[in-house]
Write a structure and sequence with these properties.
The complex is a heterodimer of chains A (about 280) and B (about 800). With about 280 residues, chain A is an all-alpha fold. Chain A has helices spanning about 1-25, 30-35, 50-90, 95-105, 110-125, 145-170, 175-180, 185-195, 200-215, 220-225, 230-235, 245-255, 260-275. Chain A starts with a helix and ends in a 7-residue tail after the last helix. Classes of the chains: A mainly alpha (about 280), B alpha+beta (about 800). The interface between A and B is large, with 123 and 143 residues.
């Protein structure tokens, strides 16, 4: 009885939460006129050939680029965030609080203030892209993958450290204490205890980071110029502009573009659950 | 034909020096022309194998894109772009004046370039005596009307303002909404109502034009144009070539010859108020798409919108199901008659849709090449190709092309006709031309007035006061000395250093930061307290090295340099000048920051609840499920909304809140609460709660995932003991679950703090802070100041203050939780 109540409550909430998703799918088969007159109705005809065909044809290369960028970003962020998160959660050292705040405070600076200085810095990055050591003469890191990877690692890890530290701190100290007495090094504790027990949080971090970099618009817009290197979030805007677009075609583009994300959710959830049922803590 | 081709080839080679491969960068916002312009570029490259044309079409954040590229220096900056997005670049000498070359022969047509362009329109964009803009097409406002409805009641398109009001009255009596007018803050500020007010002010103030014209002795006086000029109110183009002195206009404002609280303004805004009674209910919250939806669904008989709606509407009529279709037409905003104060007719306020400027890079050969390409781009043949390609792909046009000799399909030509031949406004009086801030404040005041929060007298008082404040800003932006005999811009131009390199190379700054950081670590290491083995610190620093290397390399320098600009006067495109705490002093008296802060507190508190309570509750429900499969299903399913594009969310909530067609109001009527129907986003006190409510039921995927991870990881021993001690689920949740996820809650609180205080995207898109200041927040004010008003320094100061507030709140949060834990 109680289970049934919970189940129906969750189902109702899920249905409400999924309304926007339903709308996205149906909108992707509608003309502007249909959207303006019959927003909620089922589409009168499918637009597989024109909207979806177009989207798949033109967005393929962009999506490939985005997947490369996001995968590399996620791997780097996972490594950096879990290691540093472990250090902040489990080790004692001088300057811990100050160093932590120095990282955290970076999240508090509005992004629009740092865009132009960041752009000029990657352009003037020393000894890259034909630059001399003072950053003059060339195009620096612009228009290379590094211009995305390096800042994504640098920026993405901060959120990750915050997340990992929070989670590592909740792990029972006895687990670590026992291993320490056996003479295990910190790297061993990190690798053999902290990481395996934190798969849910690492999966969460991977999903959030992948999602964030996959949807990032302004940074790739200003730093990449070669069309062949451009990413999905930019490519999908080529379907229209301002109020005068075929919204259905744009939606089809977004639906196609979200397939990698859906796959990621599935894979991510597998690891998430594995971590939860690993049983080390349940004993 | 062959001869012409030869001429083209030969003519072009004559004009241009033979050189190495030259790259022309074109960046445009007009994605509808993408394929057409690309084709023209390809043709040009065939003609000139040594030239490469690189095109970029940037559909959104175009201005950010342009500014960033310009900040990267000469090589990065696009050669051809839509200069009107960074209007202040003109005065700073960043564009090539095209005065001379306009009269010369365009090698691709064999005729003077100007002959195939719209001279009147080019004249409209004359800046300090020079021509910079080359327009391709035209955009103008008009009234779209439903012919079927008009026929049903025997109505005709009105020819005077009074007739228009009569038509409105009749329709309203029949129970039909006469007009649908986009009137949210953004539409007032930079679009429809702004244009309407300009148009009315042009009509009412037109007889003052002779006072503002340049006189003998003025630097820009041209006897060929101004001497012997006679005003002729019947000819909408009579003053097209007349040179009006921008400084004389400013002087007239200073000296009270033009009064913003005078009789003419009173007449204009009284009239506007009367007109607004016939607009759709809750118009202050209606964006353009919602307004168009009313017209298309025949909920409103007329719509004020631009010529860009023509191709869109034609396409929609083809796509609509038959029973939705209707016949439609367009008329221009009719003349105001019978008012002795209003001497002029209502003229066009439109302008160029797509227009290009040539970037000055101080490379004469290269600039010549770019101009040559622009000449090729603006030949009738090229423009025809662009238009044909655009129409073939069923892309929209903003309006008719203005390149002479370009043919449109006859039906389209007829549809565009009512937008043409209306003349151009000469002396529009809405805010200051070069000061967006005054335009914004005017729009906010107008929303208060049309929304019945203030009366006409108060509105006019506020208008006069804000223009008085704007005058010195306007003078500064145009480098004016209030002496019409001197050309101030020329004087200033040499002073501004374009393409300035930063004083300190980034390499040096970052190396310095690195050293400082090492010193900090060394001091900390040396002062390690006793009882803490030094090797702990050593290992920790070693393990943290990659993190801090990356952070110092990529984050600290941009962050510091962004924050430092808070202490400078930094107008767009100009070098920064240190001005101490001036920006912060200004902030202390900024009413928008003050009002915004109040709104922000409310938003923050609600967001904290939304981010913690809801995901926690759902996580508890999922954990309480006994069936593993269901658990797995719900965990994954609740993630799916993450992939919904932001645009869809906004569309949906726009439809929920719409006063006329919205679900919320329909629901209220259905359950007999019709008297609670509201314009949810259009009423001052309601807009903020409505914005906060968006996203219901607020099940954030991230919060859900980390709460679930916390709850499912509760060791079995604790669960067992809980079974003994606690009675019922509530007790367990209170005494075990909530304390055990405290870390997660703290994390979410901090992230929500940071996110809420920085985020302005939703508000920017939905209401732009309106109605009036109803949904203004400090971060939106920062964005407006930095990117809409071009006061980067002041915007950075607001950003700096936000940073300090977030930092303080975060530290407080840590302290507080620590004491709780102890």
């Amino acid at each position: 009885m109680k289970q049934a109540a919970i189940l129906s409550l969750l189902t109702v909430l899920l249905a409400v939460t999924l309304i926007p998703f339903y709308a996205t799918l149906t909108l992707s088969h509608k003309t502007n006129a249909e959207i303006l007159t019959e927003f909620w109705a089922w589409p009168t005809q499918a637009h597989w050939k024109d909207y979806y065909g177009d989207a798949i044809r033109t967005l393929g290369p962009y999506m490939r680029n985005s997947i490369i960028v996001s995968c590399v970003s996620v791997l780097g962020v996972l490594a950096l965030a879990s290691l540093s998160g472990y250090v902040f959660a489990r080790m004692r050292f001088t300057g811990k609080g100050a160093l932590y705040m120095m990282l955290l405070s970076l999240m508090m600076i509005p992004g629009i203030l740092t865009l132009i200085p960041a752009f000029n810095w990657v352009k003037g990055f020393p000894l890259a892209g034909g630059n001399d050591w003072l950053g003059r003469g060339g195009s620096g890191l612009l228009d290379t993958w590094w211009v995305l990877w390096l800042p994504y690692w640098a920026g993405g890890q901060i959120f990750g450290i915050l997340l990992c530290r929070t989670f590592f701190e909740t792990l029972p100290e006895e687990l670590f204490e026992a291993a320490r007495i056996d003479g295990a090094s910190d790297l061993f504790l990190y690798r053999s205890i902290a990481v395996p027990l934190s798969l849910p949080i690492l999966a969460t971090l991977a999903i959030m980071n992948f999602f964030g970099t996959y949807n990032d618009y302004v940074w790739p817009l200003v730093t990449l110029s070669t069309p062949a290197r451009q990413v999905f979030s930019i490519g999908v805007t080529k379907f229209g502009f301002e109020g005068n677009l075929d919204l259905g075609a744009v939606m089809a583009g977004y639906v196609v573009g979200s397939i990698p994300l859906l796959i990621l959710f599935g894979v991510g959830m597998k690891y998430y659950v594995q971590g939860l049922t690993s049983g080390a803590l349940k004993a | 034909m062959k001869k012409a081709l030869l001429f083209i080839l030969f003519g072009a080679t004559l004009v241009l020096p033979a050189g190495a491969a030259d790259v022309i960068k074109l960046a445009a916002v007009h994605v509808n022309y993408k394929e057409g312009i690309e084709k023209v570029a390809a043709n040009y490259m065939k003609l000139h194998p040594g030239v490469r044309v690189e095109t970029a079409f940037v559909a959104s954040d175009y201005d950010t894109y342009i500014r960033t590229q310009f900040s990267g220096g000469r090589q990065m900056a696009p050669d051809l772009y839509n200069g009107n997005f960074t209007a202040s670049y003109g005065a700073q000498g960043r564009w090539v004046p095209l005065d001379g070359v306009l009269r010369q022969v365009n090698p691709y047509t064999g005729k003077p370039w100007i002959d195939t362009l719209d001279e009147n329109l080019i004249n409209r964009y004359k800046l300090f005596g020079h021509f910079f803009y080359i327009p391709l097409d035209f955009i103008e406002i008009g009234v779209f009307y439903n012919k079927d409805v008009f026929d049903r009641y025997g109505l005709k398109p009105p020819t005077t303002w009074a007739e228009m009001i009569a038509v409105c009255r009749r329709l309203k009596a029949e129970g039909i909404t006469p007009f649908s007018v986009p009137s949210d803050l953004n539409s007032m500020w930079v679009q429809h109502i702004g244009w309407l007010a300009r148009l009315m002010s042009d009509a009412y103030f037109r007889d003052l034009t002779p006072l503002l014209a340049s006189r003998p002795g003025d630097w820009d006086y041209d006897p060929a144009r101004n001497a012997g000029w006679r005003q002729n109110f019947a000819d909408p183009y009579d003053d097209m070539m007349l040179i009006v002195s921008s400084e004389r206009k400013l002087m007239a404002i200073r000296d009270g010859i033009i009064r913003f609280d005078g009789r003419r303004m009173r007449a204009i805004y009284g009239r506007l108020k009367e007109f607004s009674r016939y607009w759709q209910p809750g118009f202050l919250g209606t964006k353009q798409d919602a307004s168009h939806r009313l017209f298309l669904n025949q909920e409103a008989a007329m719509e004020i919108t631009t010529s860009s709606a023509v191709t869109a509407l034609m396409k929609e009529m083809r796509e609509l199901k038959p029973h939705y279709r209707f016949d439609w037409g367009v008329f221009a905003i009719p003349n105001i008659t019978g008012d002795p104060l209003c001497k002029g007719t209502t003229r066009g306020v439109g302008g160029a849709g797509a227009m290009f400027t040539v970037t000055k890079k101080d490379l004469p050969d290269h600039e010549k090449r770019v101009i040559d390409f622009l000449q090729y781009l603006t030949t009738p043949a090229s423009m025809q190709l662009i238009i044909d390609e655009t129409l073939r792909r069923q892309r929209p046009l903003t309006g008719p092309p203005v390149i002479k000799g370009v043919k449109l399909p006859p039906d389209l030509e007829a549809r565009f006709a009512p937008f043409l031949g209306l003349g151009y406004e000469k002396v529009p009086l809405v805010g200051m031309d070069n000061d967006q801030e005054s335009n914004f404040q005017w729009a906010a005041a107008l929303q208060d007035y049309l929304g019945n929060r203030i009366d006409l007298d108060t509105f006019l008082r506020r208008y006069a006061a804000l223009m008085k404040e704007a005058l010195p800003r306007s003078l500064a932006a145009s480098y004016s000395d209030m002496d019409p005999t001197t050309n101030d811009v020329e004087r200033v131009r040499g002073r501004i250093k374009l393409w300035a390199q930063p004083v300190l190379s980034g390499t040096v700054v970052v190396a310095g930061l690195m050293l400082l950081f090492m010193a900090f670590l060394a001091v900390g290491y040396a002062r390690t307290p006793r009882g803490l083995p030094r090797r702990y610190t050593r290992t920790a620093y070693l393990l943290l090295a990659p993190t801090f290397m990356l952070v110092i390399l990529f984050l600290y320098y941009p962050a510091l340099s962004g924050l430092m600009s808070a202490f400078t006067r930094w107008e767009e495109g100009e070098p920064q000048v240190f001005n101490g705490l001036e920006n912060f002093r200004r902030m202390a008296h900024d009413p928008y920051v003050r009002d915004g802060a109040v709104n922000q507190v409310l938003i923050l508190l609600c967001n904290l609840l939304k981010a913690t309570v809801v995901p926690f509750a759902v996580a508890e429900l999922i954990v309480a499920l006994k069936n593993r499969r269901f658990q797995y299903f719900f965990r994954t399913a609740y993630l799916i909304p993450m992939i919904v594009p932001g645009m869809v969310t906004l569309l949906i909530w726009g439809l929920v809140y719409d006063p006329q067609m919205g679900i919320l109001n329909h629901l209220l009527s259905a359950v007999g609460l019709g008297n609670l129907r509201r314009a949810w986003l259009g009423e001052f006190g309601l807009a903020l709660p409505s914005i906060i409510f968006i996203g219901f039921p607020w099940i954030g995927a991230f919060g859900l995932l980390i709460y679930l991870a916390g709850l499912m990881n509760i060791p079995q021993s604790i669960i067992d003991s809980a079974r003994m001690d606690c009675r019922g689920a509530w007790q367990r949740i209170r005494h075990i679950d909530i304390p055990i996820v405290r870390g997660q809650t703290r994390l979410l609180v901090i992230l929500t703090l940071i996110g809420s205080l920085q985020d302005f995207q939703t508000i920017l898109i939905l209401t732009d802070g309106g109605p009036s200041t109803g949904t203004m927040v400090p971060s939106l004010r920062m964005y407006h100041c930095a990117f809409r008003f071009s006061h980067f320094g002041y915007g950075a100061a607001i950003g700096f203050a936000l940073f300090l507030v977030i930092l303080a709140l975060t530290i407080l949060n840590y302290r507080y939780l620590k004491t709780v834990e102890q």
